[in-house]
Amino acid sequence: MKNPLLSLALLAAIAAAPGTAAESKPPAVPPPPLVETREQLVAFVTRVLQTWEQGDSAGFLAAFTDDAVFAFPGGRVGKTELGALFADLHARKRDVKVYIGPFIVLGNEFALRYQFACTDRVTGRRQALGTGVRGTLRDGKIVMFKEYWDGLIAAEQAEGKIPLDEGNPLFPIASGYMMTPDRVN
Amino acid sequence: MKSSILILAGATCAVAWAASGGAANPPATDSATVFINTLEAAWWKHKSPEIQEAYPFGHSNAANNAALAARPDAKSVSKDWFLRNKRFLAEGDWYAVEWHYGATNVATGRKQLESSLSFARIKDQKLETWIEFFDDTVGELQMAGKLPLPAAEEEPLPWPAKATLSRVYRP
Q: What pTM does this model have?
């Protein structure tokens, strides 16, 4: 380019233009997803749970903060172990379905009921387990996710003692299965 | 959003609000929050005759509860039960509460102390729905000496924080 002033002006224009190489780089830290309203929180947590159905490990992990705690009846893991937990479940189970129930929400705190159903790859037996969740978000990600469900129901479903009631996310156990003295403590 | 979080024992919630400068945050009138602030400490005394209950071991209602209590073989398995470390989340006429439930087995004298998460619906200041999620194996494993009892100040967790025994996610 023969005109140095024109060259400088052109370079300045390129640098200032949207979509140039300098500006199209992703930010070092991706912005957190928008989770500012009740509806956004419900949609976000619902999407996270649906990653179980899709086997979307990356999507699942991306929803958690680096210091997140995921607790369940059997243990408690941090984010570094969460990928292995996700993979282990899918190695043992197939045809995962989640059925989302109602939420209770205040700000970044939430509780919900949902049902997690899956089929054992070895036995072919299906389980559908009502699950209660208490969780907390921070900066648009999950920092605490605590799942409460019973450790006996799945085995009793596998034995045909308790119906699945798949698709009903409201209760820990199938609707209509009445309490008897056997397990009341 | 009609909701209120109360990470305190129910009876102290109103006090906590007042101490925080209540003028900017008027007391919630949501039925669940009012119930937590007034009656929840003795929640079991405020069940509606129409209550529907659900636990990991089955559903129940007033008629079923009465029938179970009237059985000739009805007996109390546990004694000295208590609740502690309650953590509430309320919205409208629903609230969720986590807590530690402790009890002593009548036959063996062994103790269990497990966390649960319950969902309650309030109507006319009575419990209309009670749905409780917990792992019934926790108490059994504690009484067998395989899981520790959580410390008094420990946050409610599905399994005790200091458990060394583990189980895969959804066996």
A: 0.83
